[in-house]
């Protein structure tokens, strides 16, 4: 069904018809989502990306592979994750009925494992004995180390020195799982630099190594592949809405760093034109301060880490340092499909500040007894903002992408308490 | 004929190989780059690859990463690099200059503006590390329209179809990355390089430059025996890192490394 939207395309606003069927069919064979995505890497990696694309696209059509993936999601991850009606929170806010998609209940504590299960199965099929990963909050690192332990693969995780400090608990978890955690000291010592370093490892060890990218970004086929593996979130949520409520939700809300949990929730709803899709970026200390990680809300298109997408960059094209209280959102880029969903108008993107996220963390903890990850707290913060503006028969699905256990040190630190 | 093609033709006629140093523009200060370029020409550079610093140089090892950080700390922007080339051209109309860097600064300036300004400044070629031919779209035509050669990379992992396509997509020369890894990594295997360059020559008519892993006179000589150009980066940039506080010594010792390579290649 075509819809009219006001679009930003190549710098000018134009009204176009967006064919939602065409939108769902993306990326094209070159990995492009409109002008975004693609494969912007140095020549050495091109052969590996071509091999991965070919293997992935073959296996994603293979009923045996899908069955193995589904089996692991069910028996190892614990899916389906519940869709929980947060009645008390909804009542408190006095507006829309809030439903939480409980990815926090997955094995390893976040949505990340859906993707690492899928990619590790691919690594096994391709026959690579070694996997590498980058991580920000450590959730993707833990999920990678977990599947590596299970499949008997060597695992090396790159993590910024600053994030290692913020997420000591996850660092130790990865070590217990047998992974090697390599501190990254270049640049801003956060997620973007960990990604640079993982790419450098990959280019050096491309014959033996499978790179498990943790978000729906990077060179083709990663944005497509990670989205497909994460889409189980949206497929379940859609089915659960129909079963539990008897209709589709009015709006979806998810936090966006690289954007894998958000695209996983959104993708199966793209053709449902009545469902609003809202991505919440890290507003940090406030968009006006420049101390944030909100490329879709306050950035511009450019090329980084193998894809064209929205970035936080200065006028000279240098990538800017970012700030967020949550390490998992502290990234200057975003998946290319989100860039195109923004430009086509199919999804909206907003930002929540550190403070709003902290308040949401406390509110959900106290009212529902659910401690969200600081990343997911950004989505909760926006739900808290918009639920009161909606009517009581409207439905808001919030992706609770991870649990907050890993963040207790950060929260205690903000409270001035040493644990 | 472009300045780069002319250079390779002249060298071929004299039975010599091109020596191509890489330095990061703005490393050591914005006013150091042009004098250093002239000094490198003085000790044997045939073509200069001038690095445009980028905050996230994914294909580079620690030596060039740090050079980028130093250059950015001095405030070097793509527009400044173009000014440096213009200043270099005021005294040297012969030596080709190839800008080497990552796509985002060019994307931000705008491809058309970049091509116009680069041509006006006297740039001869452009190598964008993270722009394979598949993503180049109309960039090759734009560069050609402004008389700029577009140089592409080839890697040990490149399959024959890609080697042929890349040979057709670019001009000036192809840059063969001699090993799987980042700049400044391990020693190169000269026998393997010889075999690969021989294979590339069967499919590409452009001159073949070889870079990554060339760190002394002996490896430069070995590569010169099989390739048309020898590209040297990290060993020079590493010396620049050591001599940041002593400009006079830097302007002596960095070109001296190049001289030792030139002498070995020409011997």
Report on this model:
With 419 residues, chain A is of the alpha/beta class. Chain A has 17 helices and 16 strands. Mean pLDDT of chain A is 94; it is low at 1-13. Chain B is α/β, with parallel strands linked by helices and 267 residues long. Chain B has a single domain (3-266), classed as TIM Barrel (Alpha-Beta Barrel), CATH 3.20.20.70. In chain B, helix 10 (217-224) links the parallel strand 8 and strand 9. The longest helix of chain B has 20 residues, at 247-266. Chain B is globular. The mean pLDDT of chain B is 96. The A-B interface holds A 30, 38-48, 186-187, 192-193, 196, 199-200, 203-207, 300-306, 308, 311, 313, 315-319 and B 54-59, 61-62, 65, 69, 72, 77-79, 102-109, 129-132, 134-135, 152-159, 162, 166, 177, 180-182, 185.
Secondary structure category of chain B: alpha/beta
Number of domains of chain B: 1
Uncertain stretches of chain B = none
Q: Structural class of the helices, strands and pairings of chain A? A: alpha/beta
Residue fraction in strands of chain B: 5-15%
Per the principal axes of the C-alpha atoms, what is the gross shape of chain B? Answer: globular
Strand count of chain B = 9
CATH level 1 name of chain B:
Alpha Beta
Helix content of chain B: 40-55%
In DSSP terms (H or I, runs of 4 or more residues), the helix count of chain B works out at 12
- As a percent range, the share of strand residues of chain A is 15-25%
Features:
heterodimer, A: 419 residues, alpha/beta, six-stranded mixed β-sheet, four-stranded antiparallel β-sheet, 17 helices, 16 strands, B: 267 residues, TIM Barrel, nine-stranded parallel β-sheet, 12 helices, 50% helix, 13% strand, aromatic amino acid biosynthesis (chain B), Trp_synthase_suA (chain B), RibuloseP-bd_barrel (chain B)
Topology:
The complex is a heterodimer of chains A (419) and B (267).
Chain A: E1 2-9, E2 12-19, H1 20-24, E3 32-33, E4 36-40, H2 46-59, H3 63-77, E5 83-85, H4 87-93, E6 97-102, H5 112-126, E7 130-135, H6 139-151, E8 154-160, H7 161-166, H8 168-176, E9 180-184, H9 191-204, E10 209-211, H10 222-230, H11 232-244, E11 251-255, H12 260-266, E12 276-284, H13 295-298, E13 300-304, E14 306-311, H14 336-344, E15 348-353, H15 354-368, H16 374-386, E16 395-400, H17 408-414
Parallel strand pairs in A: 6-16, 7-8, 7-10, 8-9, 11-12, 11-16, 12-15
Antiparallel strand pairs in A: 1-2, 3-4, 4-14, 5-6, 13-14
Helix pairs in contact in A: 3-5, 5-6, 5-10, 6-8, 10-12, 11-12, 15-16
Chain B: H1 3-13, E1 18-24, H2 33-42, E2 48-51, H3 62-73, H4 78-91, E3 97-101, H5 103-109, H6 111-121, E4 125-128, H7 139-145, E5 149-150, E6 153-154, H8 160-169, E7 174-177, H9 190-203, E8 208-211, H10 217-224, E9 229-232, H11 234-242, H12 247-266
Parallel strand pairs in B: 1-2, 1-9, 2-3, 3-4, 4-5, 6-7, 7-8, 8-9
Helix pairs in contact in B: 2-4, 2-12, 3-11, 4-6, 5-6, 10-12, 11-12
